Amino acid sequence: MGDIQVTSLPTPDEVVAAVVSDLVSVITERSATNADVHIALTGGTVGVAINAALLSNPVVQNCRTLHLWFSDERYVPRGHEDRNDLNLEPLLANFVGRVHHVAGPETSENVQASAASYAQELHLATTSRFCADNTLMDVSIIGLGPDGHIASIFPHSQTLYATDAVVAVTDSPKPPPVRVSWTYPTINASREAWIVACGEAKAQAVANILADDPITEQMIAQTPACGVHGKYETRLITDFAAN
Ligand code: 6PG
Asked: For the whole prediction, is pTM greater than 0.90?
């Protein structure tokens, strides 16, 4: 992916700190005109560390126009240990913005209904912005799996080709199997997409992302992260171990 901006830092902690610092800058700048700010968060070890550090930041806590979303979520009840939003729960009391939680089985008929209602919530919250400039998120933080998956879009899965904004996944190779996930049309409507990857286990996926070859459908099917591109910027923030 020739147009990807790479930031390489010595440790995962420095990756988390850099991502949070850059997100705070985006939130500060975008909210200065009292505009809505939309940020999509992710799961995984780096993702959840970013989420907790972000919501512990006073600027973020006090941003009334900030909307936080999840580009994927496990279809388990709020508070379950597998939830991507789990470590935000104790921080919500101090946050004046809005976290858009994906409905779990306790508040939705099934995973398909949860995906449909999340898509509707996303549409309602972003419709004026999408009409203005065809964008959804200001920034989407995208975790990278060792197999190159992003959100719950896995190699050689049908989700690669989904055109709905949000889909139900029932066969995730990464447990738990049942999830709600954004698709490429939604992720790539982000003004900026920031892929975060730490650890040697991600080295091959990072190498595939940074390959100079023109991106083909086959490359994307093999490494779904190759299909991620923000409308204005695509970043890879990684540690030395991963590249
Ligand atoms: C999920 C995540 C997933 C994650 C990657 C990276 O719900 O599992 O959204 O896409 O971001 O698998 O996770 P690790 O950083 O734990 O490898």
From this structure: yes
